[in-house]
Amino acid sequence: MALPMVLFSQEVTGVVSGLDNGEKQTLPGVNVYWENSRQGTVTGEEGTFRLRRRNGQDVLVFSFVGYETRKVHVHDDTPMEIVLEPNLEIGEVTVMVKDRGVYLSTIDPIHSERIGGAELHKAACCNLAESFETNPSVDVSYNDAVTGAKQIRLLGLDGIYSQLQTENIPNFRGLATGFGLTYIPGPWMESIQVSKGTASVVNGYESVTGQINVNFKKPDSEENLHLNLFASGEGKLEFNANKNFRLPGDKVTSAVFIHGEDLSRRLDHNHDGFLDHPLTRQVHLFNTWKYNNHNGLMVHGALRFLTDQRYGGEVDLEREGPARLDLPYKTGIKNQLGEGVFKIGYVWPSQHTALALLSNVVVHDLASQYGLKGYDARENRFYANLVWTQDLDIAARHVLNAGVSYFFDAFDETLQSRLMNRHESVPGLFAEYTFKPSAKLTAMLGIRGDDHNLFGTFVTPRAHFRYQPDPRLTIRASAGKGFRTANVLAENSHLLSNFRDLEFDEAVQEEAWNYGVSLIQNYRVWERDLQIAAEFYRTDFIRQLVVDRESSAGFLLLKPLDGKSYANSLQVDVRYPVLRNLDVTLAWRHNDVRQTIGGQLLEKPYTSRYKGLFTVNYTTNLKKWMFDYTLQLNGGGRLPHTMGQGTDVYATSPAEFPAYTVMNAQITRYFRYWSLYAGAENFTGFMQDDPVLGASDPFGPGFDATNIWGPVMGRRIHAGIRFTLNYN
Question: What are the residues whose beta carbons fall under 8 Å from the beta carbon of 378, sequence distance 6 or more?
């Protein structure tokens, strides 16, 4: 019996080959099973296998007539390549783990992809926001030209509609929305899972367009010590370190993570008088513990502390001191965040039952100044999710996940002299049934009910289907509803970098349906696997908070939707290893995102109509050198224009922004324990014109630092060094 997937479950995949006269041949029919258990499978026609990993299982056994039986330690869910030797004499198994970088699951009923360590090393990946540069599914852009706040887009919609998780716990929401993507250092991450469409009801009701789950490096992994030093031509310095500790007895492990960054150099490449990037300083500490008694009980705890300061605005701004009309315009933002995590799970193997509790507590303080506008806030958050999992038959063809959850979120906000308090208390119940009659078909039906103290009781239904008519074709369909509370100020605080005041409702609940279909088709072309993936998703909003820049020349309106709002996303990916060590990815996505603004159904401003992606990765033999190149083609889109009475504040801005390309490249040299890397981002130096409107009079009418549709920084050159020491 497995612990609930939201806690510790993994899937191990791979291919088994045998040596025949010195040549490798894939082996169908190989017995693959976990040591000291009856849980196993056999390899398919092409030697491939998939097997669920359960609590305490870390040794796989491979047996086949005429070959040596082998035992292999499994440390994570990276796809494996196993080579068995003929049964002539006892020898060690040859195990080669090939990290494919991006792995599209064909067994999960939810459309998901895993971004592994190899993909994260293709770019500098200083943090989560920069980890999607080579990914066709997720877009990353700046919110404004002064604070450095970034946002992601999934299925054409802002990242607030995709649930961000760390280790399967909802995180970096609320006050952390604007900068949360920069709060997860890249070197700390083991992998990222991106799922599209509505997620499992086990994880809550908030996911509308998908879910992004970050897995940190594990304290019981083989990595003992990792160091990373990074420097950029703009003056950014960054240090990361993580160290694992194994206590005597092989039951308790711990890991310590340290992150520090500083950017103090003042740059103004376009000579508009404003900094191209904010001056930043961040310190982040993270300590995690894990207990595994190897008999069904696993406990995990973690503590995190982060402090982040950033100053943007005019080049000659003063970091400290008051904001006045006779001083340079500046934004000053200070975030302090503390988090505690506790997870515990237990398995009763004989009863095919498991129980898991996931919880965290977050305290977040924010003090910020945008010119003459002050915004301060404090958020206290608690989350707990108790999940019971039951295999209803011995073959696990029928599985039931059910449980209870509780979410509490307290906001105390001050915008200038306006005080706002909002406390959310949401108990919930959920159940999810998975039916898997064969390896070809999976159906997952889920429903949850939540009782919100502000918005009453609501029900969230979701369904996912997977059909695999043959091993090379996987078809999925999903449909479901999502709800979320719009944190009006926390999610839109960057709009304060604007001469117009905000006019808003304090409590708005958003509600939307999402449905979609996808397929993955694999072909064998010239002895190599060609993979084609296609998907279409549509999101229909019933209720939504609309950012209306166009109905009033004097205010930015954050109001509930009055009319239609929808998003269509169509995407096709092609992945193929052109040569033995040369991998190529081609992708194209079309977005049609519209919402009712000022009584008219319009394209959502600042949203690209399409995106093209081309990536090349070449690795030399024995992985001494790695070369990566990425080309992004970002389509044009609509820009806002005020429709109300008064002067058009966007009069100097065109009606649409043009299509543009961004190119990134990186070279990595590997040694036994360490590696050197150097690269360039946006090396053509493309920047949008006039990222700051009214820059010559930042306290006057017409000032707007949020009219952003493209890069606000030019060419960025970086270099770094990584050092890794494993236990073995």
Answer: 363, 364, 365, 366, 411, 412
